[in-house]
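Example record

The entry below shows one chain as it appears in the dataset: sequence first, then structure tokens.
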Amino acid sequence: MPEGVSLVHDTHARLESYLHGAPRAVIANLGFLPGSESTVKTAEHSTCVALRQACLSLEVGGRIAVAVYVGHSGGREEGQALERVFGDLSSRKWHVLRLEVANRKEAPYLLVAEKRQ
């Protein structure tokens, strides 16, 4: 693993227990791993807990990138909850971007938040 990169096998709801200082980047890939057991997946509550922790811990100038998959059970609701979390961030302190495929309703989309101050 490259220096400064960690791979953790745990729930993302315990993210802050693995942070050692302010990260410059946090990446989340929601849903379940294709080709694996689809009952093991991310969930609205734990995802929001983890990403709130990421927002509080992130270094100024750092970014959070989240791939949101809406095509599975609970995926749309998880995405909507996450959009509320990011939507509540101060526009003076954060830039938030949503990138989506406009002509495919069930396509995954990307949320990116940059901490300005």
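Notes for this example: The mean pLDDT is 89. The chain has two helices and four strands.
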